[in-house]
Structures are given as C-alpha cells and as structure tokens.
Write a structure and sequence with these properties.
Blueprint lengths: L8 H19 L10 H8 L3 H14 L4 H13 L5 H17 L4 H17 L2 H6 L1 H14 L4 H13 L8 H10 L5 H14 L3 H10 L6 H19 L5 H14 L5 H12 L3 H11 L10 H12 L2 H13 L5 H14 L1
C-alpha cells in the first residue's frame, strides 16, 4: 500500500497506473438508495438518467431549493456522461451548487463524490491522483451527515484501501468503518471485510466472506457483490489457476443476477480458456444484451472469440463496436485496435 518519495520514476508511473485502474474498478457505477423521494430513487436505481434529469429539472423549476432534485440533476449529468467532458463539467457545476446551497445535506456531497469519481475515470492517471483528496473529503462529509449510508461507507472504505498511504490510504481506517457498523449493519460490514481481504490478497478469506453474504434485491449491494465476485473469479481464472472455482463464481452471479452481463461474460472467459469457442460466443452474445455490458470488455472478448473461430467479419464488427464504446478502457481499446489492424 505504501509508496515512497524516492521511488524511481518508472515505479511511480506503474503504481499510478495501478491506482487509476483500481479507482476505475471501484468508482465506475456506484448506484445507491440515496433519495428519500420515491420517484427520484426509482429512476436512479434503474439507471434511467435521461428521465431522472428531466424530472429533476422540472422539480427545480418550481422549487429551486429542492436539495434532492439538485443532487439528482448532478447525478444524472455525471453518470450518463460516459467520459463526455461537457456533461461532466455541467454535473460538477451542479454538484457545487447543491453543496453551496445545502451544505448539511448528505446527498449533495454524495453527488459531488460521484461526479469526481467519474471525472477521475476520464482523465490521465496523475491528474486523477491529484483529485483523490477532494473525492475523499466528499465521501467523508457525506457519511458524517448520513452515517447509515451504505454507499458512503462502502465507497469510502474502498477508497482508503485503494490509494497509497502517502495520499491518505489506510487499511486501519477501512477497518474502523467496518467495525462501526458490525452490529447495526452486518451485511455492510461483511462486504467491507470482503474488500479488506481482497486488498490483502487473502483470496480464501474473501471467498468465505462473499459466500456468507445474504442475497439482496438492492442494486447498490448487488453492484458491490458483482464487482467483488468478478475480482475474485479473475484470480482463479488467471493462468488457468482454478477454472472450476472461477466457473462456480460466475454461475453464482448468473443465478443471483440474471439481468446483468457479468455472469455470462465470466462464463465465456472460462469456456474460451477451455477451448469451447462456440459456447463462449453464445454467452458473450447474451451478455451484450444485458445490464452493465458497457462496463465490461464484452465486444473485445467477442472479437477475440470470433477471430479464434476464423470468422474475420464478425471479429471486425465486434472490435469496431468496442472501439466506438466511450466507456471502453484505453488499454483495452489499444489492444482491440491492434487486433483490428491485423485483420486488414
């Protein structure tokens, strides 16, 4: 976790790159039960950001002091931006306005944190690192104002686990956040323990804590469970270490979250590793149609699978879709471009 001032420039660059990737994993789409207003909550929970933006604007036009509508407008702009600078800037401006007008309302600080998280995914690694203090301050204030907030507590714990010590990272602080709700919010505490185990690379412990989590219908909890499961399964998938364990984890996701792409995507990875290309393609094509597909390199893997099968036309189409997706990670896009160029 520690990073030293005397580290060579290359080492710093590698660690900064790792930090940016980790932040991308932890800050990408933190849905949450954040609004007291049922309409606003239903729209954000479903990811219907266009409708959320319209409703928030309508509310503000008749009641400019509506804190939840102000925060909802910022969230809608920020989470639908997909790296679009103008939309992210508009979301940041709205979040600042929300905080200025309602400094003691937790959801305004949460909106600021979400916007900062999205900005960090769209800028260079060193600029993202400079934004960590502001992000941490927003999550801390949000949680101070609403200690029961699932998203505030889990995201702050993950931030402490992700950033280096010299930038305010602290495993002990993450553990304090877990201990504070061990009795009052046991499932939240267990989920934080999952990420603490992941940071320590204690995969058996992580697997054990994940297995003990109770199924939840809340999208916020499902998002975090899905992220953790994919992270753990990747460890078992790596270098064919334990494909059976990886498969069981992916099948569990498919069972518990059938409307999400993660389960099908993961099973396709296992099948591809086992040389079952046609079955891998079937699962990837299914994953393309499900929620969260844009946050996974589905079309990149699909392009690779079609290429392995010898279907260059389908591979080309998949690579082109992936490259055009604004949510695709730059490193994956570069790899897809190289594969596409080789097709001629």
């Amino acid at each position: 976790m520690n990073i030293y001032f005397q580290a060579p420039r290359q080492a710093l660059s590698i660690r900064a790159s790792s930090l940016t990737l980790a932040l991308a994993a932890s800050l990408g789409s933190a849905q949450a039960a954040v609004f007291k207003d049922a309409q606003l909550e239903a729209l954000q929970d479903a990811g219907k950001y266009s409708e959320l933006e319209q409703l928030a604007q309508a509310r503000l036009s008749t009641h400019a002091a509506d804190a939840e509508a102000s925060a909802a407008l910022s969230l809608a702009m920020s989470l639908s931006a997909a790296g679009e600078a103008k939309r992210l800037d508009a979301g940041a401006k709205q979040a600042r306005l929300c905080v200025e007008q309602h400094p003691n309302v937790a959801v305004c600080h949460l909106a600021m944190a979400q916007n900062l998280g999205q900005q960090m995914l769209s800028v260079g690694m060193f600029k993202a690192m400079r934004m960590v203090d502001s992000l941490k301050a927003s999550w801390i204030r949000s949680l101070e104002l609403d200690p029961s907030s699932f998203t505030g507590r889990v995201q702050l714990a993950k931030l402490y686990l992700t950033v280096p010590g010299m930038m305010g990272g602290s495993v002990s602080k993450a553990k304090e956040l877990e201990a504070a709700v061990r009795r009052s919010q046991p499932e939240t505490a267990r989920l934080i323990r999952v990420f603490i185990a992941a940071e320590a690379r204690k995969w058996d412990e992580m697997e054990r804590e994940l297995a003990l989590l109770k199924p939840s219908k809340e999208s916020a909890v499902q998002d975090e469970v899905r992220e953790a499961t994919l992270q753990l399964a990747q460890q078992f998938l790596k270098d064919g270490k334990d494909l059976d364990k990886a498969r069981r984890l992916y099948e569990g996701l498919l069972r518990d979250q059938p409307s999400k792409a993660g389960g099908h995507y993961g099973l396709a990875r296992v099948l591809a590793a086992q040389g079952q290309t046609d079955e891998a393609i079937r699962h990837l094509e299914r994953a393309r149609t499900l929620g969260g597909a844009d946050e996974l390199p589905v079309d990149h893997r699909l392009g690779d699978a079609y290429l392995a099968k010898g279907d260059k036309a389908q591979a080309k189409a998949a690579y082109e879709r992936f490259i055009a997706n604004k949510r695709s990670k730059p490193a994956n896009v570069e790899a897809a471009r190289k594969s596409l160029a080789q097709l001629g």
